[in-house]
Structure formats: C-alpha cells, structure tokens
Amino acid sequence: MTQDRRKIMAAGFDGYQAKPIEVTQFVAAVHTAVGRLAPGEFSVTLTRPLHRDAGGPDDRVMDRRAFIGTLAGSLLAAPLAAKAQLQGNVRTIGFFGPPPSAGGLVQTFQQGLRDLGYVEGQNIKIEYRYTDQALRGHPDLFPRYAAELVRLKPEVIVVSVTEAALAVKQVTSTIPIVTVSVPDPVAAGLVASLARPGGNVTGLSRESRDLIGKHLQLLKETLPGNNRVGALANSEDPLKSAMVADAEEAARSLGLQLKVMEIAVPSALEGAFSAMHSDKADAVLVLGGGAFYLNRTHIADLALSNRLPSVFQNREFVEAGGLLSYAPSTTANYRRAAFFVDKILKGAKPADLPVEQPTKFELVINLKTAKALGLTIPRRSCSGRTR
Amino acid sequence: MAGELILIVEDNEKNRTLERDILQFHGYRTVEAHTAEEGIRLAQPTPPALVLMDIQLPGMNGIEALHRLRSDPRTRAIPVIAVTASG
User: Fold this and answer.
1) Assessment of whether the complete model's pTM goes beyond 0.90
2) How many CB atoms lie within 10 A of CB A180?
3) What is the pLDDT of residues A164-222, one digit of tens each?
4) pLDDT (0 to 100) of residue A35
5) Which of A204, A213, A210 is nearest to A336 (CA)?
6) pLDDT tens, residue by residue, A242-298
7) Taking CB atoms and an 8 Å limit, are A19 and B80 in contact across chains?
8) Are B75 and B47 in contact (CB under 8 A)?
9) Which residues in chain B have Cβ-Cβ distances shorter than 8 Å to A385?
10) In angstroms, rounded to a whole number, what is the distance separating the alpha carbons of residues A100 and A103?
C-alpha cells in the first residue's frame, strides 16, 4: 500500500523493499546503501522489458527455491567444465572489441571463459585486436584488423560492434563470428534471422532499435513539458539510417519534435551541442554506442554544461555523468559471449545457434546529474536509498 | 573476502534465510535478529554497514526500532532499509 510506504519513508528509513523480495532490486538497494554503487547513481534492474508490460505472470519475483537452484547450478557446473576443458589442446580464438581500459568489458569476457573452464595461457589463446582507434576516426582499421585476425586462423572470433562484425564477415565466411554488442544483426545483414542465423555469424543482439521509442517515452515521462528533443547519430554507424527512422517514428507517435543531427564523432560533438543549445532543445537522445561510447565522458560533460537532460543506450554513459539509460546490460553480454565461444569450440555451428536477445533491462538514473539539472525524478522510477 | 556486515531483523524464518542467502552470495557478512530488541542489541557493539528492518515484528515494531537506533550515537549513522509486506 502506498499509504504504508509513505508512512515508512516518513519515519526516516533510508529505503524500502516490499515483500516478497525482488532479488535484483533488493541487491541494488543493498549495494547502494553500503556504497558499492557510486553515490548519486541508482540502478533498477528489471527482468523484462518495459515495453512488454501487458499481462502475463509476474516473473520478477524469484522465490527461494529458484534462487538456490540457480546458485547450486552455477557452483556445480564450473568445476566440471573446467576439468573437461583442461584435458584438451590449447584452442585459439580472436577478440575484436574494446580495449581493457574501456570499463572492464574484456575482463568480463575473460571471466566468463574462466567460469566455463577456459583459462587464458593454459588451454585457450586469445588474439586481440581493439576497436577504439578505429572508432575514433580511423575506420580503415576495421578491415585491416579483421584481415589480420582471420589470417591467424582462430576457431571463433568475438566481435563487439556492428562495424567490427561486418569487417570480419567480409573476409571470412567460414570462421564462426560471435557478436556481443550489435544493435540489430538482421538489419545489419549479419544474420538471416535471429532464430536461424544461417551463416557464420551468431551471438547476442542488444535489441537497441526496439528501445529507442522507450528512450523517448522515458524522456517525456521524466521531463514533462519537454517536447524538443535533439537526436545525435554517428555518420559512420552502419545502422544510423535505421535508428534515425525508428526515432522519428517514435517521436511522431509521442508528439515530440525531434531534430536529428548526423555527425562525425568526436570532431563534431561540440558543434552539435552548441546547435542544440541555440535551437532550445529540451533534451538529447544519443543513438547508438560505438564511437559515442568511447567519448561518453565528453558527451556527458557537454550535455551537462549545456543543461540538457540526456538519454543513452548504455548504462556506462550514465556512470560517466549522463542522466538516463534504459538498456540491456553490456557486461552481461560480454559474459554471455563466452557461452557462445564454448558452444562453438564444442562443435556447434553458428548457423544453428539462435541469436540471443536480452531478457534483462536496466533503467539507470544518475541522481547527481538530475540534481545538477534541477530535476526531480518521479519516485516510482527509483527504489531504495535515494537521498 | 570479508564483505560488509549486514544486520537482518526479521521474525519470519523463510524471509530471513532468503535475505541471508542473497547477501552472502554477493559477498556480504550477515548477522540475524528475530526481534527488534535483539536487533538493537546486536547493532551496538559492532555497528553493521546496513540494517534490513522488518516492520511488523512481535513486541517492538520496526519503526520504533529505527527511532532507537537513531537516538543512540553508536548506531545513529547506520543506514536502515525497511523490508515489509506490500498490500
């Protein structure tokens, strides 16, 4: 009952958790209260997308038995897998993605492999090529690194963004490719369909295109009265036209005025923010990750200094000072990519491995940024300690 | 790994066990109390990093317990999250 809840918060508690406990929310509230999450940041993890709200059984409540089941399953599986793997030869795989300095994503992937029994230097060798330089204005590095990796003949190549995936696919139709952070592998021409990829590409979809409407809706709900939204698209992103079309369609149905700017990243960022400022934009929507992701701190700073509420496709933008994100967890995808590597090393064909779509979405709000912008976030968007 | 200490005040055994399992899985240390009085007693010598407080407890309720914690300088600064049945 909201009445009770109000009474409890008025009594001076630092947060409120309803029974039955929803595990991810409960853990986020605890992490925040003890300071494991950065102060000012608050994260709510939802186990199903907001845009599929209607009806259905409530799957957000995990009971004790289910929780213990997951726990026991993962604890038991790891040593068995480790034993099985260590008896084999050293396997070589390729990794074409962010460098170790980019938020621990490579490390998460390596940890995912270790959990499945693959220890780098012991039974697995990883050839690395990084996407950061290529995304920072040297797109010629995509085909170059892709060719280098393919020449090394790894058994599978893990790729982060659409550009990297397309570049590798261009040079090999036989080496399996696992995507980690591609917004829409079908539209990008990487797979025939999510269920039956058909070629040498499979992996994880970020489903970001479906989320663009949700991002605009969040802006509208969080910031009522804000109607003029500036959208930034990266002119080098292979999916930019599709994303722009999605954003325009969503804006029309929500009654928002959208002004799209296709820009070179990072050189045109400052100019774009000045243009939005003089256009009197109320908020900014950033379409896509990739080059934007690498410049997230700069983008968050620009949004704040131009006093623009911002919404993004990755939580890392919000950790860097952006206002809102609603997205699948990037970290979860990097961990899950190890599962695809394992399947392929055990003989599965990418053509038969369905592309996985995210099932967990996080709404992340940077309360420090909200405060700096003079915004009050509706209470229902938060839980736990929010002061 | 010595995680932060969390005090669980909860009279229902099922809920207490669930909270404990989740917290320990995430690397926290836990201490448990069945009543508000016991919770206050446990919080004083070694202040936990966080208290998870059930509201409907036999004897003293969670709100009263919070006031007690806040009026004692040793436990005043401990964050307290209410855990309660939603109607």
Assistant:
1) no
2) 27
3) 999 999 999 999 999 998 988 998 999 999 999 999 999 999 876 778 888 998 888 87
4) 67
5) A204
6) 899 999 999 999 999 999 999 998 899 999 999 999 999 999 999 988 889 889 999
7) no
8) yes
9) 79, 81
10) 7
